[in-house]
Amino acid sequence: MLRGSCNCRGVTFTVRGEVRSVSSCHCGQCRKQSGHVWASAVAEQPDIEIAGDVRWYAASPIAQRGFCPTCGAFLFWKHKDETSMSFALGALDGPTGLKLQKHIFVADKGDYYEIADDVPQREN
Ligand SMILES: [Zn+2]
Cα(10) to centroid of ligand 1, in Å? Predict the structure, then answer.
């Protein structure tokens, strides 16, 4: 089981069951929301238990971004038509046992950094 929280710990969450799609997203929305790239993994929504008040922001018509209204930590992303949800890897506490599997939306990455590892990259 994975455990995580926002920076002020007003929002905490646990993840049970299968975790997949461990990725680092370089899209413009994730960079604006997080301040750089957003690292996340995906689980089914019933496997993610959230405690505390999450505010949801629809950055686009197809998806919502969940953040802590007190400290602003960007914790969750969910597509309106999917039963899964992404959660922030940076919010996890303790060893995760996870390993980055892909960089996504690298076509949108900023020009101020290079991706300097051997993890596979996807343009979108
Ligand atoms: Zn918080």
Answer: 5
